[in-house]
Amino acid sequence: MAARHHNFIRFLGYVRPYVKYLALAVAGGIAKFTVPLLVPQVTRHLLDNVFLDADLTRSQKLHELLFYVGGMMAVFIFVYAPFVYIRHLYSDKAGHRAVFQMRCDLYYRILRMSASFFQRNKTGAILTRLISDVQLAQNLIGTALTNIWMDAIAVVVVLYFLLKIDILTTVVALATFPLYLFCFRRFSTEIRATTRQVQDELSAMSS
Known about the structure:
The chain has 207 residues and is mainly alpha-helical.
């Protein structure tokens, strides 16, 4: 456990120079997941306060509809789309640059190894570390390190809207969350073991 923790800290050392890129990616991801939440809110407003309002004339209702629909289109074009682009651009840029430095260090490290190292380790295992494992590290940078913050903030925003709509419905919706946590902790160890087994089999096949 301590060794895995130490390796992860070393891995974060490659990510640290690109924290600004990750911050921009997280900001873009937050906009990507929160802006669509405005659609049901606008729809509810139009249904409850516009179309069901007997005091408004037909032309006034049409004006309100066009105003909100046009506003949502403008938000998606000038806010949502650019932030989605920023999210993918900077997450990929951070992942590629960090992994590039990692690959360089790995290559230099392997070139300095003695001949006995290559006698003890299969060629396929070394290639798997250089290709497959590093690719997994790139995916970790581009997805996990950004999604964890985006998902946390998105959950807070969704909970706010749910509690604002109906508290009882929110409690019912969250009733399955403990079951999700139990299943996640129950199967996470097996998933890690299976993933390690797959990587070992890839090493054997490459040999």
